[in-house]
Amino acid sequence: MILFISFLALTLCFLNYYFFYPINENLFYLYSFICVLIVCISISYVFIRNKNNKKNNMIIWDLEDYFNLPHSNSLQETKENLKKVFQTQQVQLQDQKTQKHFMQKQLHDLIQSLHYNKPLKHDKVLQNIFQEFNIIKKSQFNIYRNIHACIINDNSIENYLLQCILHDMGISSEIKTSEEIIYENYQFVISKNPVEHGLNYVFSQVDTKDLAEFLNTHFKQDFYQMPYMSNVLIFKSSSFENDLILNITNQFCQNNQAASNLSDFKSTLRFCFKLILLDYEVIKFDFDYMLHLLHEYKNKYPESRILLFSKERVKECNFADEILHDLNKNEWLNLLKKYL
Predict the structure, then answer these.
(1) What are phi and psi of 24, to 5 degrees?
(2) Angle at CA of residue 326, ends 324 and 327, nearest 5°
(3) What per-residue string of b and e applies to 124-139 under the rule 16 or more CB within 10 Å gives b?
(4) Cβ-based neighbours of 123, under 8 Å, separated by 6 or more
(5) Per DSSP, what are the bridge partners of residue 191?
(6) Cα distance between residue 166 and residue 150, in whole Å
(7) Whose CA is closest to 160, among 142, 173, 177, 146?
(8) What pLDDT is stored for residue 151 in this prediction?
(9) What distance in Å separates the CA atoms of residue 216 and residue 227, rounded to the nearest whole number?
(10) Using an 8 Å Cβ cutoff, are 266 and 237 in contact?
(11) Of 48, 34, 51, 38, which is closest to residue 4 (Cα–Cα)?
């Protein structure tokens, strides 16, 4: 419209100058310049607007191609199509979030069940996973006698975890359906829905502490506690090494002890330690007796681990879980992380 008006004004200006009513020449040139300027501006505006529209259309086409949308004839239609796509993706993301939460719960249960699997409990990879997922370490549970439980549950991972925990408490268990169970054969039943007969532990998710409290409440007369275990006993060939390793160990954990002589070490073995570091040099002069003593100790406390340090090759030391030929601070800390 502006372009049309500018052409019309310029035409009238020329016609007026040459044919109708002559005007001042300077005024004619001024009018003509203004009209030409308006025409140039109008042409530039139209050119820029068309260029921007083309660019915007290209962006819209790219968006439509990216989201697999049908090509639309208007920006409003494109907006509506995009809105539908975003709504669909929002629903999908919510479904994925729900699925992820479910998988995380399953993974947590699986990892925790692996924590109760004794052949794997010292695996370095699993130890890192336990720390990353904040898996609760196995505590000193009460051990129960002559208790048989039935598990009614469809979740195989939860069932495996429950059986591992019960086994760690000395309780045998079987997995049955509600139709198969004979309640008289079991002291209690574990299920997610209440059952009509017998003692019933109902759970929504596996909770070790809650299960332990339930057992402590209903079977208090049937358990005995595992002996208290100190952490580390150290018996090296020199008092300097004893003090040095003991100080490093105390920085890592508490309840540690160092034996200063063979008699002190023998008397200390009446207590239970999770880890014993022992020099071959201090037991080789009374080796047969110490071999018998350490075998008895391993039979009494099978959870304990014995590390034997010797710079030379030794034989008949099958009481030792590991034989070390060299030991520095980092290696010792890694052993503590492995066994404690």
Answers:
(1) -60, 140
(2) 95
(3) eebeeebeeeebeeee
(4) none
(5) 152, 202
(6) 11
(7) 173
(8) 93
(9) 17
(10) no
(11) 38
Q: Which helix (H) or strand (E) holds 124?
A: helix 124-132
Is pTM, for the whole model, over 0.85?
no
Type of residue numbered 10:
L
What is the distance between the alpha carbons of residues 207 and 209, in angstroms, rounded to a whole number? 6
Q: Six-digit token pair at 194?
A: 């209440």
What are the φ and ψ backbone dihedral angles of 230, each rounded to 5 degrees?
-75, 175
List the beta bridge partners of residue 232.
256, 275
Amino acid at 193: N
All residues at 6 or more sequence positions from 236 whose CB lies less than 8 Å from its CB, including other chains: 242, 245, 258, 277, 279, 282, 309
Amino acid 188 reads F
Beta strands in the chain (DSSP E): 142-144, 148-152, 172-175, 188-191, 200-202, 223-225, 229-235, 256-258, 272-279, 305-309, 322-324
Structure tokens at 60: 């819209």
User: What residue type is 79 in one-letter code?
Assistant: K
Q: Which of 282, 169, 153 is nearest to 216 (CA)?
A: 169
Q: Identify the pLDDT of residue 233.
A: 93
Q: What is the distance between the alpha carbons of residues 237 and 264, in angstroms, rounded to a whole number?
A: 13
Calculate the CA dihedral of residues 64, 70, 71, 74 and round it to 10 degrees: -90
What one-character-per-residue DSSP string does 88-122 give?
A: HHHHHHHHHHHHHHHHHHHHHHHHHHHHT-GGGTT
Q: What is the CA radius of gyration of the chain?
A: 42
Calculate the CA 169 to chain-centre distance: 27
Name the β-bridge partners of 323: 308
CA distance 74 to 78: 7
Pairwise CA distance, residues 181 & 150, whole Å: 8
Low-confidence ranges of the chain (pLDDT < 70): 1-36, 39, 46, 50-75, 101-141, 222-229
CA–CA dist 338, 329 (Å, integer): 14
How far apart are the two ends of the chain, measured CA to CA in Å?
87
